[in-house]
Structures are given as C-alpha cells and as structure tokens.
C-alpha cells in the first residue's frame, strides 16, 4: 500500500508538470479518479507527443463515452509501439489503482526514459523502445518468429537497457565522490547518491564532507531542495518516500531521469555498453556499535562489492587494500 501511495504521489507530480504546459493548463488532484473519463490521459499524451488527440475527446458522464475516450488514448499508445499488457479501457475507467499506475509507468518509460537515454546509446543496434512487464526475456533470434512478435520481444529488453543506461550514467557520475550506486532502490536511502548527482552537475552546490555529518533525512531534504531551487529539477519525491526499507524503484527512476535534462555536457561514453558491470570503487558507511557522540565515518575503497568492510573503534575485519578513516569532526 505504501509503495502504491509513493508511486501515486510521484506520478501525479510528474503528470502535472506536463499538464501545466497544456492550454489551458490542467491539474490532477486524485489520479485514480481524474483519469477515469480519459481527458487527463488524452491531454497528457498530446503534450508528450506533440500530436493532436483532444479533438476526439467527448465530455460525458455516460460510461460508454468515457470508455471510448480511454480506448482512443490506449490505441494511440499501441500505435506508438508502447506495449500494454493486461490494461484495458474498462479497468482505467473503473480507477483500478495498480493498472492505472502501470499505465502511467509505461508512458513515463516510453516518453521520458527513451527520450533521455535512447539517443545516447550510440553503440546499441536497437532503434525502438517501448515498455513491457518484468520477466524472462524472450528469444528474439528465432527465424520463424513473426516480425511483430519479435519487435515486441525486443522492447522488453530495451526497457531494461534504458534503465541500465541511466544507472550506468549515475554510477559514472557519482563514484568519483565516493558514493556506490548499485540500484534504483536502497542505494539512495542515505541521500548521498542524490547529492553526488547534483555535485556532478555543479560542484559548487554540494559539500560531500558536510553531507557525511548529516542524517539521511537532512541529506534527502537538501538534495531535493537544491535540485529544485538551483537546477530547476522539479521535486517529485519527499524524504519520507526514500526513508523506507525498500524505496520504490520506478519513482526514483522517474525523478533521477530528470537530471539528464539539466546536465551541461552528456558524454557518449557515459552510456556506452550499459550491460557492462562497473566495479564499485568506493562507498561511505557509518561506523556501527559506537555511542552516537563518538560515531565516525569511514570511506572504504574496494574493487568489488564482495570485498566490503566496516570498521569501528574497537575492532576490525582483516584490513582491505585501502581504508581511509575520517573521524568526526575532523
């Protein structure tokens, strides 16, 4: 339920960013309710695609007209090579929460993630990107597979490739500041990853040494505020959304992808071969099992995540190749 609430808030803010460009501007208050007549959906797709859809919208309280509006929007998505699985007009008209969120995620993935990472995957032989459900990737090499089916199978692979490309970019930009980003979930809980992305854009905006002395909540609040006020990156998340055991991956991906639009120089090598695993060069951790007033910070350098160490004041594991211990406040 909490994951659904986080997605609902994040996706609603993302939608409203784009609906603000519609003339006259529109705004979603309750996503599961406001989407049911098709107007919000058609207007959003019109803004994102630059194509006219709203001339086909019919305002009515009758279910048949609502279904027709939604069906036209879904047909537009399918014609745009967005693969929709188990999503039909009736479920959206009924405000089915999981399917509404699934539909919006498909739209975000196609129109935002594709747009921002697709043109930078220069070594990729794939030219089309759509979204599909998570699951085993289909074999796309069988010669008897019809072209349409083969293309749809490729889109599932490309969905993952786009997210991996974004993760590769984040890893390259943050690791020089001693932050190891392994995923779009727990790696972001401390707030340091968000701050490192901001620092990679403008090094004057963030002091990583100071960030080590702050709590996760303070770092998250700093990151979201600096990003919005200094970089113009809209605030889609709140600290409470990230300070959970398993932060929502889709919400974090949606937010982090916005930074690509604001990065001054996007290098092609940041996105080449997103399937390649990069070693984690360093990560910040807190020293455990010490009184809070004596708590220190340590920077651990390691060649792989299998070789990670934590050190406290009294005892330690066998020493890794390089360990730099920074005590507070020095």
Classified by CATH, the class is Mainly Alpha
CATH superfamily: Calponin-like domain
The share of residues in helices is 40-55%
Mean pLDDT: 76
Query: Rg to the nearest angstrom?
Result: 22 Å
- Cross-sheet strand order for the largest sheet: 1-2-3
Distance between the termini: 43 Å
- Shape, principal axes of CA atoms: elongated
CATH topology term = Actin-binding Protein, T-fimbrin, domain 1
- Biggest sheet features: 3 strands, antiparallel
Order of helices and strands: HHHHHHHHHHHHEEE
Number of strands: 3
Q: Report the total helices.
A: 12
What percent of residues are in strands?
Answer: under 5%
Structural class: mainly alpha
* Low-confidence regions: 119-154, 274-321
CATH architecture: Orthogonal Bundle
The number of domains is 1
Structure commentary:
This protein is mainly alpha-helical. It has one domain (1-122, 155-267): Calponin-like domain (Actin-binding Protein, T-fimbrin, domain 1), CATH 1.10.418. The protein has helices spanning 2-19, 31-34, 39-49, 63-79, 89-93, 97-117, 147-174, 192-201, 208-211, 216-231, 239-242, 249-262; strands spanning 282-286, 297-301, 322-326. It has a 3-stranded antiparallel β-sheet, with no helix packed on it. It is elongated. Mean pLDDT is 76; it is low at 119-154 and 274-321.
């Amino acid at each position: 339920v909490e994951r659904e609430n986080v997605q609902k808030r994040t996706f609603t803010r993302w939608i409203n960013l784009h609906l603000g460009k519609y003339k006259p501007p529109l705004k979603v208050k309750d996503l599961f309710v406001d989407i049911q007549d098709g107007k919000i959906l058609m207007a959003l797709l019109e803004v994102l695609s630059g194509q006219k859809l709203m001339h086909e919208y019919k305002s009515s309280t009758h279910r048949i007209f609502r279904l027709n509006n939604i069906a036209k929007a879904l047909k537009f998505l399918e014609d745009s090579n967005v693969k929709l699985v188990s999503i039909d007009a009736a479920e959206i008209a009924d405000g089915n929460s999981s399917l509404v969120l699934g539909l919006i995620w498909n739209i975000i993935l196609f129109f935002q993630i594709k747009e921002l990472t697709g043109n930078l995957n220069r070594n990729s032989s794939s030219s089309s990107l759509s979204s599909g459900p998570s699951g085993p990737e289909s074999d796309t090499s069988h010669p008897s597979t019809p072209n349409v089916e083969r293309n749809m199978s490729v889109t599932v692979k490309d969905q993952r490739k786009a997210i991996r490309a974004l993760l590769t970019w984040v890893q390259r930009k943050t690791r020089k500041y001693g932050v190891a980003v392994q995923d779009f979930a727990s790696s972001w809980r401390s707030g340091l990853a968000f701050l490192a992305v901001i620092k990679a854009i403008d090094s004057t905006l963030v002091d990583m040494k100071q960030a080590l002395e702050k709590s996760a909540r303070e770092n998250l609040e700093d990151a979201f505020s600096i990003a919005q006020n200094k970089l113009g990156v809209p605030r889609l998340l709140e600290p409470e959304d990230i300070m959970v055991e398993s932060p929502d991956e889709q919400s974090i991906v949606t937010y982090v992808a916005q930074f690509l639009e604001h990065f001054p120089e996007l290098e092609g090598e940041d996105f080449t071969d997103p399937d390649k695993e990069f070693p984690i060069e360093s990560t910040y951790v807190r020293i455990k099992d010490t009184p809070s007033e004596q708590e220190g910070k340590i920077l651990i350098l390691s060649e792989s995540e299998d070789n990670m160490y934590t050190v406290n004041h009294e005892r330690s594991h066998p020493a890794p190749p390089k360990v730099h211990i920074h005590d507070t406040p020095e």
